[in-house]
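Dear H.,

Thanks for agreeing to be a second pair of eyes. The structure we're designing against is below in token form, covering all 757 positions.
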């Protein structure tokens, strides 16, 4: 089943303003302002990667109102010919409001929702592997990000040294609400190898043969936060011209990246080493592993208080840099360059934003939907656990959750995205060396090595991932099932760590022609390899990795974004003037033309073969021991759309055929030596990409001071089809091994006119 495409709209309105004031010969001010409004309707809502995916049916998109503001004031003062100071203050604001498209209410469909008084829209209904009805569970949200900055740089030239000293202070506010899972979510899953059985379950409301014909999720809690961060940086840089051939670049930078805190102290953390479990009859009250920010305006009784930021700030971010340029010939036609530097990267506030999903400020209640007349089971007309209103949160964090009695079969498992007490600032070591050779007039050849090593990188770990015991051939949850065993980011008991690593090595070759005879171009080729244990996602860095999420070193492989080879050729060519003399019409028609283009060729992205039937099982598949032959199929990509690789080479790896997280392994293909799948991460690659963008520009000289510019731009000039990676989830047999999407659109032709004066 292929979803019908919907119509999306986008409009952009921009305003730019610049004001330069010369106060004196040595003192000037520059004021710049930028404003942009981007009202957007997404037929398939996917803002920040939070949509329902490609199988979303039309009619349930979302409206986005995006407004950006940027203002800056720069003060430049020349104290003397060799001392210049530049100070800058700035303000930026990003406002994003997302409203789900909701043509139906839950009541109009005969579906009950305990929160319908606040959120009347219909729930999200997913028929696994086929389609999704209803808006995204994350589409009702709004954020306001304000940032103030002040920085100063003093430049001082002393003989062979050009010294620069500077610093910056930055204060940020992140105010938002996120009504996640407030309308509820219902998923119908296949009950057999037939991928269409989930549709039959959807039509009938479930089968009496199973207690898990469908599951429901509903969230209730405190849906807003107001985060603040403070950053401080300072640097010193010396560009030292040692002699006519050698220049050294020496520097040291310090960065303090303040971790976010909530102005009302509504941040909580889970400390695994302090966990204490109770029973339904006798829950364990705090202290039991849960702690709260020390600036809480309404502290939860008995819960220990810690730092306002939950974990201490990292104060050790010193970053040295060194570089050199050495001329290998007297004519300076061959230059050897190199450099090394450490670069710190602040953690985004996303891990703090997702605190609104954390117990005890929010609860995600899971219900079992089935028509069986059994107490505790839900029906399709009343699928959700009767969670309390948001005003009752935060609840006292007992273990099990005080809401567990509401769901007798699965309880209300404790879940959330917490932070490692030992989290530190990630940093990258970058290093490179290259040779630049002017082998002919206006032509430059550059050959070099570029590499990097990432340390203390962010990743997400599932703390309660079930552990396999070979002696009993069974899986048990380390913290028991009162804590969620789900492995998806939103529903499990997750911890954000700064423990991951990455490496990048590349050979880079380029040929540059400087502008002469009307032509300039740049041809650049890269042969590289990036490896890591965790790549995040294209938009959201907090994501679940298929495999063993706790013993994360088993997930080593090519980065999700790794491209082995990439060639880019770009050019600008001013066509010769073919009309001269006094023929004004001929000059207007045939002169002042320019051509420009960009050619991009690159190899495909890597992918894993995964087994992901539900939120409990997110792991890599197993090799099929009975399969012989090649995993990869042959022929052009177009001829391989229905089977890009041999799907028979793989089998499901899940321990329990039912898809449960704990219990005795009963899958004949289960590999006890690799309980989370024995296929490597990202060991296959998808189709390569190719594209040409081309422009034809006509300049119209109205006068010496007034010139028009008419552009015709072709995006994907040759209308090449670039295919995305195939379906990689063996649990979704309808799309497994098939390519169902493209990565670029068709040819687009754009016309533009600019007036320069």
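And this is the sequence the design step returned. I haven't edited it by hand at all.
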């Amino acid at each position: 089943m292929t979803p019908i495409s919907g119509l999306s709209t986008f409009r952009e309105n921009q305003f730019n303003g610049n004001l330069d004031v010369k106060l004196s010969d040595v003192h000037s001010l520059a004021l710049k302002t930028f404003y942009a409004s981007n009202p957007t309707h997404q037929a398939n809502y996917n803002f920040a990667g939070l949509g329902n995916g490609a199988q979303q049916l039309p009619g349930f998109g979302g409206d986005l109102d995006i407004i950006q503001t940027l203002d800056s004031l720069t003060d430049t003062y020349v104290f003397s010919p060799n001392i210049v100071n530049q100070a800058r203050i700035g303000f930026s604001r990003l406002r994003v409001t997302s409203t789900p498209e909701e043509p139906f209410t839950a009541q109009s469909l005969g579906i009950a929702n305990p929160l319908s008084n606040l959120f009347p829209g219909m729930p999200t209904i997913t028929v696994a592997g086929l389609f999704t009805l209803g808006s995204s569970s994350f589409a009702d949200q709004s954020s306001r990000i304000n940032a103030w900055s002040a920085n100063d740089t003093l430049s001082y030239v002393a003989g062979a040294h050009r010294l620069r000293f500077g610093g910056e202070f930055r204060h940020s506010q992140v105010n938002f609400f996120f009504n996640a899972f407030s309308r509820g979510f219902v998923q119908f899953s296949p009950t057999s190898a037939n991928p269409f059985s989930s549709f039959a379950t959807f039509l009938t409301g479930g089968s009496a043969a199973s207690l898990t014909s469908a599951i429901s999720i509903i969230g209730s809690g405190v849906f807003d936060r107001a985060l603040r961060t403070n950053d401080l940086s300072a640097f010193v840089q010396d560009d030292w011209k040692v002699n006519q051939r050698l220049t050294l670049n020496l520097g040291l930078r310090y960065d303090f990246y303040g971790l976010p805190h909530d102005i009302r102290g509504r941040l909580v953390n889970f400390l695994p080493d302090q966990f204490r479990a109770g029973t339904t009859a006798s829950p364990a009250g705090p202290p039991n592993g849960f702690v709260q920010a020390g600036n809480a305006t309404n502290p939860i009784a008995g819960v220990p208080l810690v730092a306002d930021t939950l974990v201490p700030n990292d104060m050790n971010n010193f970053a040295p840099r060194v570089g050199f340029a050495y001329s290998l010939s007297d004519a300076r036609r061959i230059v050897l360059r190199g450099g090394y530097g450490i670069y710190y990267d602040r953690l985004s506030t996303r891990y703090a934003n997702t605190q609104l999903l954390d117990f005890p400020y929010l609860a995600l209640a899971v219900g079992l939907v089935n028509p069986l007349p059994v107490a505790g089971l839900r029906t399709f007309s009343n699928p959700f656990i009767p969670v309390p209103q948001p005003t009752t949160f935060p609840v006292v964090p007992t273990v099990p959750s005080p809401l567990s009695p509401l769901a007798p079969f699965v309880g209300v498992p404790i879940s959330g995205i917490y932070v490692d007490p030992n989290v530190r600032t990630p940093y990258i070591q970058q290093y490179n060396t290259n040779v630049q050779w002017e082998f002919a007039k206006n032509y430059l050849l550059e050959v070099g090595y570029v590499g990097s090593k990432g340390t203390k990188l962010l990743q997400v770990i599932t703390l309660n991932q079930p552990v396999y015991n070979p002696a009993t051939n069974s899986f048990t949850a380390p913290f028991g099932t009162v804590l969620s065993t789900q492995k998806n980011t939103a529903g499990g008991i997750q911890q954000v760590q700064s423990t991951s690593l990455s490496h990048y090595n590349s050979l880079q070759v380029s040929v540059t022609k400087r502008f002469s005879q009307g032509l300039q171009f740049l041809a650049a080729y890269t042969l590289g390899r990036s490896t890591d244990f965790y790549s995040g996602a294209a938009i959201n860095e907090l994501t679940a990795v298929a495999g063993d999420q706790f013993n994360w070193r088993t997930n080593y492989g090519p980065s999700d974004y790794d491209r082995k080879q990439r060639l880019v050729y770009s050019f600008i060519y001013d066509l010769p003037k073919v009309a001269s003399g006094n023929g004004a019409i001929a000059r207007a028609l045939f002169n002042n033309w320019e051509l420009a283009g960009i050619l991009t060729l690159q190899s495909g992205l890597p992918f894993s073969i995964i087994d992901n039937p539900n939120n409990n099982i997110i792991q890599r598949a197993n090799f099929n021991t009975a399969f012989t032959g090649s995993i990869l199929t042959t022929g052009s990509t177009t001829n391989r759309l229905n089977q890009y690789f041999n799907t028979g080479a793989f089998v499901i790896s899940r321990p329990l055929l039912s898809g449960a997280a704990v219990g005795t392994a009963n899958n004949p293909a289960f590999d006890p030596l690799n309980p989370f799948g024995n296929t490597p991460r990202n060991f296959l690659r998808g189709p390569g990409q190719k594209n040409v963008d081309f422009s034809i520009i006509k300049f119209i000289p109205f006068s010496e001071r007034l010139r028009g510019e008419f552009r015709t731009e072709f995006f994907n000039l040759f209308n090449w089809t670039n295919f995305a990676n195939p379906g990689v989830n063996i649990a979704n047999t309808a799309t497994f091994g098939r390519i169902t999407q493209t990565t670029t659109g068709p040819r687009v032709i754009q016309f533009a006119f600019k007036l320069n004066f």
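Two observations from my side: Residues 604 and 688 are 4 Å apart (CA to CA). The chain has a mean pLDDT of 92.

Warmly,
E.
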